[in-house]
């Protein structure tokens, strides 16, 4: 049939080219023929019959079936190009308002009623105030600064450990201050240990750079004094221990121990413990933006991972490479929202750090039980049993960013109770928690 159509096209082409000539014709005959062309009477062409049209359609269908189907890219370069196109399309769709609405809620005020939890909140250990994530650091700094009026020594110690993020530098500075105080305590009669030169190289490199260090020296009894220096032009500044502090050297030892034993002031994660009635939406989680927001460093890492995805499609990965990729995926989330389905169908919900260990989860559940001394089991989706004694993180167990767990009493406990002719209570939560039960929406 293909040849049939080609012959028809050739016939039409030749007929439209006009009359031809014989090779034996002379030039004069050719001229006369051109001057007096004979009119060509063409017969009107009839269209194909219905049977011919049906036969042609069937032939074309058979030809299309025989044509090879378009294949996807096979070379590494074409694979890379294809993946890049898909990633660009994915990035474009993720930037659209509709896509962002599906992934992360934009308006907390409008959608708060539909969220599984309104956000991630923290509790300031100094004031007990519940704070949003963006309020946390500023509030703690303000609380520490306001603490100077009540206990300047404690406030300055908190400032040293909290305001300075470089833990190695903090340790070096704190150890140096402790050395100064040890010299005073061990040699109370030697005046040289009771003066600290501010322009001293060690002081400048290890202590002066720490926020709160000057407040600490002044709070424990040092005073800033300008003194002349032998063999040197002009006076210099010193910290000189006051008379009251010299009279009570044991206090300096106490201050040193407090400085060495202190930790940064960090807000604690608010569990936001909630209890819900039995619901078919138990496994449905609509999380707020706090669970998905990325820092600048995390954004760069995500971009690097997307670039590496191109290479993964065109190369074989070793076991070590796969394990490294899995570990990288585990660090993707910072928080986890967990629900525990109890024997009566009620749901216990709490917020956790993604890297918290399983004992923290068991402790949270146990604190909500009436009989907190009875052993119990928790199982993840798929029947995976969680072991309380194992120091596994939640993200290592696949419980991020959200998960539904199932609570059950320990099998041996159930056997003992049934042997005694009793059954465990269906309602296992403390009464004060049951008084706050909500409807899951």
Stretches where pLDDT is under 50 for at least 5 consecutive residues are 27-37, 66-74, 96-111
Radius of gyration over C-alpha positions, nearest whole angstrom: 41 Å
Order of helices and strands: HHHHHHEEHHHEHHEEHHEEHHEEHEEEHH
Strands in their spatial order, largest beta sheet = 7-9-8-12-10-11
User: The biggest beta sheet, please?
Assistant: 6 strands, mixed
> What amount of the residues lies in strands?
5-15%
Number of E-type strands? 12
Bulk shape: flat
Tally of DSSP helical segments: 18
Average pLDDT over all residues:
79
Range of helix content: 40-55%
Q: Label the structural class.
A: alpha+beta
Would you mind describing this structure in some detail?
The protein has 441 residues and is of the alpha+beta class. The chain is built from 18 helices and twelve strands. It has helices at residues 2-15, 27-35, 50-66, 76-95, 97-103, 108-111, 136-146, 152-163, 167-186, 201-206, 213-219, 243-247, 249-261, 296-312, 319-330, 358-367, 411-419, 431-434; strands at residues 121-123, 130-132, 195-197, 222-227, 236-241, 268-269, 274-276, 335-341, 347-353, 376-379, 385-386, 402-409. Strands 7-9-8-12-10-11 form a six-stranded mixed β-sheet. Strands 2-1-6 form a three-stranded antiparallel β-sheet, with no helix packed on it. Helix 4 (76-95) packs antiparallel against helix 14 and helix 7 runs antiparallel to helix 8. The radius of gyration is 41 Å and the shape is flat. Residues 27-37, 66-74 and 96-111 have low confidence and may be disordered.
């Amino acid at each position: 049939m293909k040849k049939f159509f080609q012959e028809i096209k050739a016939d039409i082409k030749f007929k439209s080219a006009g009359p031809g000539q014989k090779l034996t014709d002379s030039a004069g005959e050719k001229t006369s023929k051109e001057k007096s062309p004979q009119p060509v009477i063409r017969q009107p062409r009839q269209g194909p019959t219905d049977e011919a049209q049906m036969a042609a359609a069937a032939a074309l269908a058979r030809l299309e079936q025989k044509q090879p189907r378009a294949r996807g890219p096979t070379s590494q370069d074409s694979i890379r190009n294809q993946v890049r196109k898909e990633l660009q399309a994915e990035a474009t769709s993720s930037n659209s308002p509709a896509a962002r609405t599906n992934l992360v809620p934009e308006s907390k005020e409008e959608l708060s009623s539909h969220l599984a939890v309104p956000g991630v909140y923290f509790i300031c250990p100094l004031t007990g105030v519940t704070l949003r994530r963006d309020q946390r650091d500023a509030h703690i700094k303000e609380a520490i600064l306001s603490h100077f009026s009540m206990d300047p020594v404690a406030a300055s110690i908190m400032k040293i450990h909290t305001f300075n993020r470089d833990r190695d530098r903090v340790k070096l500075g704190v150890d140096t201050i402790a050395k100064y105080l040890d010299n005073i305590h061990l040699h109370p009669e030697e005046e040289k240990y009771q003066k600290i030169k501010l322009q001293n190289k060690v002081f400048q490199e290890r202590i002066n750079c720490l926020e709160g260090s000057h407040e600490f020296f002044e709070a424990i009894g040092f005073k800033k004094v300008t003194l002349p220096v032998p063999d040197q032009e002009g006076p210099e500044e010193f910290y000189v221990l006051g008379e009251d502090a010299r009279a009570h050297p044991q206090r300096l030892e106490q201050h040193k121990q407090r400085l060495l034993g202190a930790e940064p002031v960090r807000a604690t994660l608010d569990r936001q413990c909630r209890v819900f009635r039995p619901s078919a939406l138990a496994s449905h989680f609509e999380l707020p933006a706090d669970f998905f927001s990325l820092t600048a460093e995390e954004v760069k890492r995500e971009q690097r991972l997307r670039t590496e995805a191109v290479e993964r499609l065109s190369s074989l990965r070793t076991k070590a490479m796969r394990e490294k990729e899995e570990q990288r995926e585990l660090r993707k989330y910072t928080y986890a929202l967990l629900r525990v389905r109890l024997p009566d169908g009620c749901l216990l919900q709490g917020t956790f750090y993604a890297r918290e260990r399983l004992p923290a989860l068991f402790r949270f559940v146990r604190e909500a039980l009436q009989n907190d001394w009875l052993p119990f089991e928790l199982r993840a989706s798929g029947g995976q049993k969680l072991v309380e004694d194992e120091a596994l993180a939640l993200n290592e167990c696949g419980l991020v960013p959200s998960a539904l767990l199932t609570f059950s009493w320990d099998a041996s406990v159930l056997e003992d109770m049934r042997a005694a002719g009793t059954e465990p209570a269906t309602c296992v939560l403390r009464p004060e928690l049951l008084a706050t039960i909500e409807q899951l929406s």
